[in-house]
Amino acid sequence: MIQKELRPVILIELLLPLALTIFGIYHGVLQVLYRAGVIQDTSFLGIDYYQGLTAHGVINAIVLTTFFAVAFGNAVVSQLLDRAVSVRGAWIGLTLMVGGTLVAAFPIFAGKANVLYTFYAPLKAHPLFYIGVVFLVVGSWVSFWSWIPGYLRWRKSHPAQKTPLGAVGIFATFIIWQICTLPVAYEVIVQLLPFSLGWTKGVIVVLSRILFWFFGHPLVYFWLLPTYVMYYMTLPRLAGGKLYSDFYGRLAFLAFIVLSAPLGLHHQFTEPAVSSGYKFLHAALTFLVAVPSFATAFTVAASLEHGARQQGGTGLFAWWGKLPYFDPQRWLFPYLFMGLVIFILGGLTGLINASFNMNALVHNTSWIPAHFHLTVAGPVFLAILGMSLYLSVGLLGKPCASPRVALAVPYLWTLGVFTFSAGLFYGGLRGVPRRTNLGLSFLDSSSVAYRPDWVIGEYVGAVGGCLMGLAVVLYFYVLIRSLLAPRSEQAADSFALPEAAAYHDENVGAVRNFGPWIAAGVIAILISYVPPLVQVLGGNYVPAPG
Ligand code: HAS
């Protein structure tokens, strides 16, 4: 059971960032309108294009995802490890995260931090932006640390038991987060903050970019792994069956600890300061990090098949028809299932990006946002929406007020995100740039830069973006109606996250201990990052002024 005293913490961690997401999604819809030339201006309703794009990225990709990972982690650890969360630690973590978010929000909304979610130097934000980000991250560390003593206690009192798979997934998520936030903490505290305060004349841009992507790629697995926890722990149960293999789940989570970080240079294939041998190493490791996702695809598909066959499914393929796609009682199912469907394309396009020569065609074009909307705005965002609704109404002892509308949301979002991405993939292959207010140039028919061949992709993207916006409106309709429904203390007390039993419950020693996997991860980082860092530090680069 989830600790009762932890409920308010989890509810704030779910609902506060969701409220901010209204701005995040609004600026997403504005993005497609600017880019399709529907808005032909530098700003709309007083908010500048790059200010809105920063709010879109920071709120959706940093704030929402971090708060959700902590909230879901609190719920999973509390339920699976016999109330292992230190409530005081959880409150301190929450306070730091909320404080940091509010501090960072101020310069963003005042237009003094138009640096996008990657805050590339020498773009310069107001110091409060960097200070806020630091507090948000430190708050998430404190929340993670508040699980460790309880976990160690649990291990002592259950010596013969395996750590439950969901808890392994959550710990893997936060071990990755703990490791990958160290380089970005260095970048922010040593390079960007003094630069923004005017204490230094400039920033060595190459170094800051390497440090950012050292963080930026494992960041995507910090986003993804809570979703994988739901795929392994919850989805098989919703499908009416069991998890096909407990071992494969553990192996996937532990493999991510080793492989998430040592490959960030695949975001920098065009970086002139690093030689191509290191880029090749990172490219090869990128192909390796797809393996735990392929293993997940197999294990989850086998679990779905098991569930469908329990419901009377037969045949080689006919069993797919027995999954609960439209069951209002199991409205959470399509939030997870449609995420998997979207991720097939998101993952495959990631492998295209990782291929050195193909990357040269798509880098910095609209292909890249098409890819990442099929990942972070696909499986990750749908899982966050579904689980936030499930957890918040469950913890309050309320019913989902409109289960049929709740069911429609993931399907509409999927239609929207596929349409959006189709337009952006099409445009990207024709050279349409990302992060550009196209309505002022390439999509303005009166401009000398006008590109009529780019129009169709951006129009299709805009239709998709509007459908995504509509899906979120429906989601908030359900969420608000559910929050206003009458509560039952009894229902709240008996609430628990659905946890699937394992069909094959293997007992393999190699996946019962985090230690060797963390050590292997650190060695992989040293091998892949020390040489390129030495190369950059020896390069005598002149700091760039802001
Ligand atoms: Fe990526 C750029 C490569 C995964 C997010 N990525 C980005 C950026 C973001 C992002 C935000 O190598 C842009 C950053 C920026 O602002 O510049 N990515 C990969 C690779 C993977 C990958 C190889 N990315 C993700 C995930 C993300 C994410 C996950 C967020 C959550 N990505 C790149 C590269 C770039 C990049 C380059 C830089 C490009 C550039 O030039 O800038 C892999 O991890 C993907 C492996 C996944 C699979 C899919 C497995 C499929 C599953 C579903 C099974 C379905 C079932 C249902 C069972 C191989 C698990 C069946 C149902 C039926 C109906 C059939």
Question: Can you lay out the helices and strands and say which pair or pack?
Answer:
Elements: H1 7-35, E1 43-44, E2 47-48, H2 49-80, H3 87-109, H4 127-145, H5 148-157, H6 165-196, H7 205-233, H8 235-238, E3 243-245, H9 246-259, H10 276-289, H11 291-310, H12 332-354, H13 356-362, H14 367-373, H15 376-396, H16 403-429, H17 455-484, H18 489-493, E4 502-504, H19 515-537
Parallel strand pairs: 3-4
Antiparallel strand pairs: 1-2
Bound molecules: heme-as.
Number of helices: 19
Tell me the overall shape: globular
Spatially, the strands of the biggest sheet line up as 1-2
Please tell me how large the radius of gyration is. Answer: 23 Å
**What is the residue-averaged pLDDT?**
97
| Secondary-structure class | mainly alpha
CA-CA gap between termini:
52 Å
Strand content: under 5%
How would you name the oligomeric state of the polypeptide chains in this document? single chain
Number of strands: 4
Portion in helices: 55-70%
